[in-house]
Specification:
binds P1-(5'-adenosyl)P5-(5'-thymidyl)pentaphosphate, 5-stranded parallel beta sheet, 230 residues, 5 strands, Rossmann fold
């Protein structure tokens, strides 16, 4: 990913749009095509007159990007699971306070590559952490804030890993075994079932164009109808 994801607080307030802020997240396993679809979605939203803030997790602020570095660095192979979970939420707390919440408060749309569903999928499903421990931190850090819409790109694990590994050398997560990623996928699919009102499950084993068409249809149906009819 080459995009500079850091937010600039001055820019956020200067660019607040006329539409009420909406919070969209993209989720999925490794190599599911989130970044590819995020770029397409943002370009399409701009055509519709919505200029969203584009960000990612872990990361999105200078400090959270440094925490991302710690989380992804293969040198930290022995990092404890609790430390991993706390780092994920420490990064999220900074990202929310200094990037996402000010943008939403200013009426701006936010499109974010991964959010807390990834914690339930990777630390909960993949690492086997109890859901209740994640819920405590979610309540503490998010104080009720949830995405308005989550686009979950679902792909067989082997296919996603092949795509991801073709592109770059494995980070600390990508070095996990197949069973880890099968648990991640199962956890994501369970989230989609449990939160069907928020999550759109999209088959990602299609062409980029076909996936993009489903993404647009989902956003138009769930979020844009009110905006376009004004
Ligand atoms: N993490 C994150 C946690 O453990 N807990 C958390 O709470 C959070 C927030 C972050 C890591 O952190 C972990 C999970 C992750 O391991 P990341 O960079 O966000 O890392 O996640 P990755 O999945 O590693 O991101 P990738 O950039 O590798 O995958 P994407 O974004 O899903 O895929 P993308 O778009 O880069 O595409 C990958 C390749 O596939 C091709 C693309 O051209 C590219 O080469 N591609 C397609 N090929 C064929 N058909 C299509 N439809 C295609 N779409 C894309």
């Amino acid at each position: 990913m080459n995009t500079d994801w850091r937010s600039d607080d001055g820019l956020l307030s200067a660019q607040s749009g006329a539409h009420p802020g909406r919070f969209i997240t993209l989720e999925g396993g490794e190599g599911a095509g989130k970044t590819t679809q995020l770029r397409r979605l943002v370009a399409w939203l701009q055509e519709q007159g919505v200029d969203p803030l584009v960000t990612r997790e872990p990361g999105g602020t200078a400090a959270a990007e440094r925490m991302r570095g710690l989380l992804l660095d293969s040198a930290n192979v022995g990092l404890s699971i609790d430390a991993e979970l706390l780092l994920v939420f420490a990064a999220r707390a900074d990202h929310l306070a200094r990037c996402i919440e000010p943008a939403l408060a200013a009426g701006r749309w936010v499109v974010c590559d991964r959010f807390t569903d990834a914690t339930y999928a990777y630390q909960g499903g993949g690492r086997g952490l109890e859901r209740s421990r994640i819920e405590v931190l979610e309540r503490f850090v998010q104080r009720g804030l949830q995405p308005d819409l989550t686009l979950l790109l679902d792909l067989p694990v082997a296919q996603g890993l092949a795509r991801a590994r073709q592109r770059s050398s494995p980070d600390r997560f990508e070095a996990e075994d197949l069973a880890f990623f099968e648990r991640v996928r199962t956890a994501y699919r369970e989230i989609a079932e449990r939160s069907a009102d928020r999550v759109c499950l999209i088959r990602a084993d299609q062409t980029e164009e076909a996936v993009a068409a489903e993404v647009k249809a989902c956003v138009a149906r769930r979020l844009l109808a009110g905006v376009l009819s004004r």
